[in-house]
What does this fold into?
Amino acid sequence: MTAKRFIEVRDLHGWYGESHVLHGVDFHVDEGEVVTLLGRNGAGRTSTLRAIMGLIGRRSGSIKIKGQETLALPTHRIARLGIGYCPEERGIFSSLSAEENLLLPPVQAPGGMGIEQIYAMFPNLRERAASQGTRLSGGEQQMLAVARILRTGARLLLLDEISEGLAPVIVQKLAEMVLALRKQGYTVLMVEQNFRFAAPLADRFLVMEHGRVIQQFTQAELPQRIGQLHEYLGV
It folds into this structure.
């Protein structure tokens, strides 16, 4: 059976003011796929996620979500197509408890996870439900940031550096979360600097450089591409 495209990006250019940061990005992600954007800092990976959500100054090209062109849509309309964005800065509200943070975003599409489902996936959040948001550990804040978008009904998750700066035991829990979400049919597009984290999770890898995708390969091709990857990523 032919896989269905969840998102298709073609000749995407993006600007912050006068700064031209994306230079003709081309890729797609099929429903149920986990795809990782790799590249050095400044390659355009985060800007690509932000462009998908309409969060950069100006865009041109094409971004189709399930066949619908979204380039002219405002961010809130894009979210309602079933897109959840977890930015690197997390955006936890310090004045709210963990559970209040979790309940804050509106449901955007049917099929979101209930609170009990989320607590089953993230037991730490159940234990810390009444704790002030910024009193959570870095790992717990990251779990909360991801959990919030699971409530909204999003089926395509844009995850930006979710493993950054976290203890190995938390990184392992996040890896288990990504695998569990894939089993449940979620589609994931991740930006990751931590290749060890991303390597066993992704179906495909896209390498970005200077604001465009310059290479792509599958999980099966990974062993033959390690040397090339080290050159691209400088690792």
Q: What stands out?
A: The radius of gyration is 17 Å.
